[in-house]
Amino acid sequence: MERVLGLDLGSRTCGIAMSDALGMIAHGIETYRFAENEYEKAADYIKDIIDKNHIKTVVLGLPKHMNGDLGIRAEISIKFKEMLEKRVAGLNVVLVDERLTTKIAQDQLIFADVSRKKRKKVIDKMAAVAILQGYLDAN
Questions:
Q1: Residues in contact with 76: Cβ distance below 8 Å, sequence separation at least 6, in sequence order
Q2: From the first residue on, what is the mean pLDDT of each consecutive set of 10 residues in the chain (139 residues)?
Q3: Cα–Cα 20 to 30 A to 123, which of 28, 79, 110, 117?
Q4: Does this model's pTM top 0.70?
Q5: Closest CA to 131 of 52, 40, 57
Q6: Which residues of 23-52 are buried (b: 16+ CB within 10 A; e: fewer)?
Q7: 16 near 32, Cβ under 8 Å?
């Protein structure tokens, strides 16, 4: 099995998680910050991580509305998927429903008694972990 990358894309941040070499456990890498809507720059940054770690599969959160509809954020995620696939030949980018992953991450951090200030710094990374771990568990 190979490592899998998990992403939680926002308008100014991208939470990044990676699986272990066996593809069983997700762990947080970082929260990448970029200028608002600078998705090309973010895609270049993610490409470097993909190249350095020989990633073949990326799991990208697809933000749906609670009723299942796709909004503007989902359209941005779909375009980001296409950006990554153009930059890396043979890359498989899987879109997964990310509803409630930020809430799950928030609850875990509160349970761990992490201060509000520190939670704000790591919430996107933890959401990426939740997205990736859900994918790994399902597969």
A1: 9, 11, 39
A2: 91 94 91 93 96 95 73 88 94 85 65 65 80 90
A3: 79
A4: yes
A5: 57
A6: beebebbbbbebeeeebeebbeebbebbee
A7: yes
